[in-house]
Structure formats: structure tokens, C-alpha cells
Design brief:
The protein is α/β, with parallel strands linked by helices. 37% of the residues lie in helices and 31% in strands. The protein has one domain: Rossmann fold, CATH 3.40.50.300. The protein binds adenosine-5'-triphosphate and magnesium ion.
Length: 224
């Protein structure tokens, strides 16, 4: 039997999650701009590539080859051969590319070990004036991703933007409760000056509120 956890490339994050990303489930990282969401996604992708698997990487914000290269190190070129990158430009394309990803999961040369979607809500933001209809579409995308996670026995890692919930006077993740329910593990990143904190907000088998502190470095993050 395969282990049910997949390493993230960060010991701190693995420990927080009780060993790594859970297969057959969605893990969500949310936080303010520059808090480290994409860095953690790239680290997880690189760890999976280094283990010999492929990665499906859906990037809605413009993939940074430079940052990937920094994190992947000297083997970046060879590792990138197994990174299947999708860059949807609008919300409709996001849906199409999730469907296209399934082709790779079925037929990829090296088995796909991880599916990343960074960010799941950047394009959704532009649809927000559609109200419930936008929520419905986003949920549909996430249910599709969850279906792929289950069918192909892989973890799905998504990131999410935050906004100020004025009614409750606190910041919250976009995508409403639908996205919260569909994510089995949720990590909140906080940024104070140079320091960052990753806190567990939701998990099936770990206590909420545990955290670790880190800084962002050339090759990823360093736990402090
Ligand atoms: N080589 C590097 N060395 C140190 N810090 C770096 C390096 N590259 C990027 N950073 C820092 O990483 C931060 C950005 O991290 P990242 O892109 O992971 O954030 P994010 O949460 O994905 O942001 P966004 O919401 O804008 O997508 C910035 O503070 C930047 O200064
Ligand atoms: Mg980012």
C-alpha cells in the first residue's frame, strides 16, 4: 500500500501536516500577498519531481521560471521535463484545463504524484460580481479536482487569496464555505515584516492552531 502522505519538501510543513500532503484530498494554503504560498507550492512540486514523479501544475498568476529554477537548483532543467504546466487566462479556461489535466493523469510517462493549483481563486476574483453563480462555478472546479485526487490517488494542493470580511471584521479566504468544506487541510500563512508563520486552521487528525515560523530563502523556506 502506498503511504497516504506525500512530502512537501519542507520538514516544517510536513510536521505540521502530520507527515505531508494527504492523498485523495485537497490541501489549501491561504494568506496575504507575498506570504509564501507559491514558494510552498513550488517546493512541493520540486520534492515530487525529485522523487521521480510528474507534477501537474495549474498556475493562474503567471509561472515564474526563475523562482522554480532557484528552488529546484542545479537539476532544474531535467526536473522541468516532468512538470506539466497549465496557465489558464480566465475562469472558463481554468475549467477546461482541469479537464485537460486528466489526460495527463491517465497517460503521463512518469506517474503524476501531485496536482497543484496556484491560485484556485485568482481568476474567480474577476467573476465575483456574479455572486452565487461564481461560487457555483468555483465549487464545480474544486469538486472536479477532488474527483481527480481520488481517482488517481494523489494529493491536490491549492492556494487561496484573502479578503477583508468587514461584517466579521477579520480576513478570510476567498471562495466562501464551499472551498473550506472541500479542503480537508487548511493552512494560513501570516506575514509580519520579514517573518512568516504557517498555522494549521483545519485538519482531520491534527490539532488546529499549531504553527511554525519560517523565512523565505533563495531555495525555498527555512524554519526558524
Ligand atoms: N530568492 C529569494 N530569496 C529570498 N526571498 C525571496 C526570494 N524570492 C522571492 N522571495 C520572497 O518571497 C516572497 C514572495 O513569496 P511567494 O511568491 O511565495 O508569495 P505568495 O504568497 O505566493 O504571494 P502572491 O499572493 O502575491 O502570489 C516575497 O516576499 C519575496 O521577497
Ligand atoms: Mg503566489
Amino acid at each position: 500500500m502506498k503511504t497516504d502522505r506525500v512530502g512537501t519538501g519542507s520538514q516544517g510543513l510536513d510536521d505540521l501536516l502530520g507527515g505531508g500532503l494527504e492523498r485523495r484530498a485537497i490541501t489549501q494554503i491561504y494568506g496575504e500577498p507575498a506570504s509564501g504560498k507559491s514558494t510552498l507550492c513550488l517546493m512541493a512540486a520540486v520534492a515530487c519531481l525529485r522523487a521521480g514523479n510528474s507534477v501537474v501544475y495549474i498556475d493562474t498568476e503567471g509561472f515564474s521560471v526563475e523562482r522554480f529554477t532557484q528552488i529546484a537548483g542545479e537539476n532544474a532543467g531535467a526536473l522541468a521535463d516532468r512538470l506539466y504546466l497549465f496557465e489558464p487566462l480566465d475562469f472558463a479556461q481554468q475549467g477546461t484545463m482541469i479537464a485537460d489535466a486528466e489526460g495527463l493523469l491517465k497517460n503521463g510517462h512518469a506517474p503524476v504524484g501531485l496536482l497543484v493549483m496556484d491560485s484556485a481563486t485568482a481568476l474567480y476574483r474577476t467573476e465575483l460580481d456574479l455572486g452565487r453563480e461564481a461560487i457555483r462555478k468555483l465549487s464545480h472546479h474544486m469538486i472536479k479536482l477532488l474527483g481527480l485526487a481520488k481517482k488517481y490517488d494523489i494529493p491536490v494542493l491549492i492556494t487561496n487569496q484573502i479578503y477583508m470580511d468587514v461584517e466579521r471584521d477579520r480576513v478570510a479566504g476567498l471562495g466562501g464555505t464551499a472551498l473550506e468544506h472541500l479542503s480537508k487541510a487548511i493552512i494560513r500563512l501570516e506575514k509580519k515584516d520579514g517573518a512568516r508563520r504557517a498555522m494549521l486552521r483545519k485538519h482531520r487528525s491534527r490539532p488546529e492552531g499549531i504553527s511554525f515560523d519560517f523565512t523565505i530563502t533563495e531555495d525555498g523556506i527555512r524554519t526558524v
